[in-house]
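Figure 2 data, in text form.
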Amino acid sequence: MYEYIKGTLATLTPTYAVVEAAGIGYFINISLQTYTQLTDSSDVQLYLHQQVRDDAHVLYGFADVDERELFRMLISVSGVGAATARIMLSSLNSGDLTTAIAVGDVGVLKSIKGIGLKTAERIVVDLKGKSLKPSAAGGGGFTGAPTDSVRKEATAALLALGFPKATTEKAVDAVFKQNNRQSVEELIRSALQRL
């Protein structure tokens, strides 16, 4: 198991980063929280979680240990896979997510795409008694210029997360029309609420 990777940030998108370390480029899946923290960085350190499947070895990277620990707790819940946990960490920052779990706010969890009532209740039951520390990371983000590239990048990120193209484009366009001054992260979070 890998603990972390330290190297040069070669590529950064809202869903993945490529980190070059010792001449090798590592493709690492990330959440919006991590994306926000990596923006404007060239040398990075990401804490890793490796998932070994029959068809692939997949790396998930996190800007801090607390977010990785929350990810690992989420995937320990029956019915919550790595993709769903990443969407949860992209929809809410770690602090809001841990608070919702700690107080048993099933409504907040249910508002996340892919989380139904039973899964939300299972998350609360399984994780409520565990030590969940809110991360200092999360929220915020940078304010970018309103450009079509922001909309295209947000759409590409949601497609990479596995959402259907037609509904993704519709949700991103609707959010972009309401407020075209959002950063990529804000646009993705708002679109996730509509998906």
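Caption note: The domain at 148-194 is CATH 1.10.8.10 (Helicase, Ruva Protein; domain 3).
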